Amino acid sequence: MYKLLTKVQSPADLKEMPMEALDALSREIRTFLVENIPKTGGHLASNLGVVELTLALHRTFSVPRDKLIWDVGHQSYVHKLLTGRREKFTSLRQFGGLSGFPKCSESVYDCADTGHSSTAISTALGYAAARDLQGGEGESIAVVGDASFSGGLSMEALNHIAHCNHKVIVVLNDNQMSIGQVVGGFSQYLNKIRTRSSYYTVKRETSDFLHRIPFLGKPTVHVIKKIKRFLRYCVTPGVVFEKLGCRYLGPVDGHNIRQLCDTFSEAARIPQSVLVHVITTKGKGYPPAEEAPSRFHAVSPAGSTAESCSARFGKTVLDLGQTHERLVAISPSTPDASGLGAFMEKFPARFFDTGIAEAHAATFAAGLARGGLIPVLSVYSSFLQRAYDSLVHDIALSNLHVVLAVDRAGLVGRDGETHQGIFDLSFLTHIPNMAVLAPSDLHTLEEMLRYAVEKHTGPIAVRYPRGNMPPLSGPPFVYGKAAILRTGQHITLVTQGRMTHTALAAADLLAEKGISATVLDLRTAKPMDKDTVLEAARKTGAVITLEDNTAPGGIGQQLAAMLAGIGCRILTRAFPDTFIQQGTVEELMALYKMDAQSLAADAERMLKA
């Protein structure tokens, strides 16, 4: 079925194929992606859009001598297929299998570990500087999407390119999409270039015609080139890139392999930094993905159809927006995925998509709060890391009423190291003025959001996991108070968020062996209900903490310090000081001894000791 794809064991095999065979190979690759990605889950539309682009890059350049850095990295599946990893593709995003992102430990063809946006140009420039300082060779190439291109880090790197003489090739993959639609002034600027692409067609045709004129042709071309340099600054939108030190080539049809290869070869010959503007279609070749690229940005294997935390968040914020006219919502380029799509449609003037710019989104929220509004900023936990200084300097320092909806908190599973949201409890709880809440079910999530919007006065974060949390029987949410879900005599289990269900399951296992456990759901990770914890700890004399967070700086360490003076035995269960690999949440919880069975076994050993 895959006659050509099976012949490709490395990029060198592409260089041996005739150009017309690459078009057939691109069709095979799309068929392979459509058939295989839904089995493991992963990013479909973005990879369908870069098939020809990836083929042309590997046909023209020689990786790993030439350094190829994929920004974000979720569009690197075709790259993996062409670099000897096709037979392992069934393990994509599985425990112990292929990563869904470039990973240096996985292949010499992966030149950087990338999972977040806007990092590729900086990395490529660093590679280029290291090459030149050490007398090396090879090109340094960054492939950046138009959504990532608008991120602050990309702009900072472009500014640095203008300041130094180290050549990089920046490939701008312009598909006019992020996870959702790309927004902002930079997107509008690129649109102007797209609509004026006829300029480049005329330029190429004129040059070809003049070169065919004997004697006068070449001198005439030389004069016209001088005139063209002047006119470029008058009529060509790409002049912005040239002012930043990059020769601009494009726009190029991102699905025409021959044109791409010719353009990349030209870029390699140019002695200065080059920006190649490539126009692609997200979801190319698969009609459902072309028609709805946002819906096919990422696909998942068949699973639960239960209401997700993101969906409940979206419904609650929409409901609150009906009665609170000062409420506004902010999303850094993930409105639908975070559940804010309905709010965006209902209150377009009160919804702000900042693009991929988390730090700006946080400081923008601070400005909204200073202006008398109630901003709700929805952001993934792993992306919130990028806004840390804005949280400290612009929000918490002034004790502004900004509501952070921290989505995908804790393990996210198959997206792996770059996306696990296991640091937010540590870096949020040590910020002065910041309150941190963690619901253990959807009903409590709604209660916390209503409190955060309607009653709280300073900065407050509500963290919740990806997917669903089953219902839980407990008392109503009270800010600053832990919920006592089970009362026992032998040991106290202190937890919060979705780990509360694990603690209750462990308590059931212990009860079967005659051990009764008190289960405390902290709910408010900061400020912590110290009185309730101390009372339970003194009663049982033994405490185990469990949290969906890294151990350093987490709830367990804070409780251990608090309980040190009362002679209570304490064991903390959290993720170790390492990056957590990909796998299902259940697999990873068991691996790190944070499942119910391991927790119950810990309790037994602790009591026996």
Helices and strands in order, then pairings?
Layout: H1 12-16, H2 19-40, H3 45-48, H4 51-60, E1 67-70, H5 77-82, H6 120-133, E2 140-145, H7 146-149, H8 152-161, E3 169-174, H9 185-195, H10 198-211, H11 217-235, H12 239-243, E4 247-253, H13 257-269, E5 274-279, H14 287-291, H15 309-323, E6 327-331, H16 341-346, E7 351-353, H17 358-370, E8 374-380, H18 381-384, H19 388-396, E9 403-407, H20 424-429, E10 435-437, H21 442-454, E11 460-463, E12 483-486, E13 491-495, H22 499-511, E14 517-521, E15 524-526, H23 530-540, E16 542-550, H24 555-563, E17 569-575, H25 585-591, H26 596-608
Parallel strand pairs: 1-2, 2-3, 3-5, 4-5, 6-7, 6-8, 8-9, 9-11, 10-11, 13-14, 13-16, 16-17
Antiparallel strand pairs: 10-15, 12-14
Helix pairs in contact: 4-13, 6-8, 10-11, 15-21, 17-19, 22-26
